[in-house]
Specification:
The chain has 252 residues and is an alpha/beta fold. It contains eleven helices and ten strands.
Length: 252
């Protein structure tokens, strides 16, 4: 399986991308798995959803270009981008705390997934970045719009427009990363969640709804949809196709 879903007795659900040989890149199977995990996370005995990647090399390297290189037109790209944007909006508006346990490098769409989570814990010494600009596209799963909700505008804009990998120390300094850890990732995550999980589920739901209501009122879903459509247009460009061809040649 390219993913696993585990229910932990401490009250959280753990979704793991099991594609370490592909640096935990997202394919259609992982998309379906994440959607399944989000659905399972609504069960009454689950108080939090944790997302991570297998092994410590990568949390998630974004979309798997060895799969998605077959998408050439903006219509083909839109179908994939829109599907993942729907999943990320469901993740964002899940009425329980969500945690990105960033145990390795997070690149491109991996950062979009992390942005959609309420909290981001990262292992010290790794790097992460919204590098889509280097691929001649933008964030395409709605992550740019979500990032604009997480950080002050100038900081978010700089991260997106520079399209560089950043140290997690810097990302913590600007407020994207909430906490750093050095040892066992699950232990660090459970320690971070411990006090939160001691509260009743109804309390967690009620607080999360404050932000969900805000995002509904500011039409975040519509803004994410605009982002998806803009990325689909860029996906069709010669510049992006040349980048993908070069990427595939390098891997071969």
């Amino acid at each position: 399986m390219s993913y696993s879903i585990e229910k932990h007795e401490k009250g959280y659900l753990l979704f793991t991308i099991n594609r370490s040989e592909k640096r935990n890149a997202i394919n259609f199977d992982v998309m379906e798995g994440l959607a399944e995990a989000i659905k399972k996370a609504t069960e009454p005995d689950i108080k939090a959803l944790v997302i991570t990647g297998k092994d410590d090399q990568a949390f998630c390297s974004g979309g798997d270009l060895s799969v998605f290189h077959q998408l050439h037109t903006k219509e083909e790209a839109y179908n994939m981008l829109s599907k993942m944007a729907n999943i990320l909006y469901s993740l964002l508006t899940l009425p329980i705390p969500t945690i990105a346990l960033i145990n390795g490098t997070a690149v491109g769409g991996g950062c979009e997934i992390a942005a959609a989570c309420d909290f981001r814990l990262a292992r010290e010494g790794i790097k992460a970045g919204f590098v889509q600009g280097k691929q001649a596209i933008t964030t395409g799963w709605g992550g740019g719009s979500i990032l604009a909700e997480r950080l002050p505008s100038a900081i978010a804009m700089k991260l997106l427009m520079e399209a560089e990998l950043q140290t997690v120390a810097y990302l913590k300094e600007i407020g994207f990363i909430n906490s750093l850890y050095t040892d066992n990732s699950l232990q660090a995550c459970e320690s971070y969640l411990e006090t939160m999980l001691s509260n009743d589920l109804s309390v967690l739901n009620s607080y999360k709804k404050i932000w969900i209501r805000k995002w509904e009122e500011t039409k975040l879903r519509e803004r994410m949809e605009d982002e998806v459509r803009n990325c689909a247009v860029l996906w069709e460009s010669d510049a992006h196709h040349e980048y993908v061809k070069a990427f595939i040649r390098k891997k071969q």
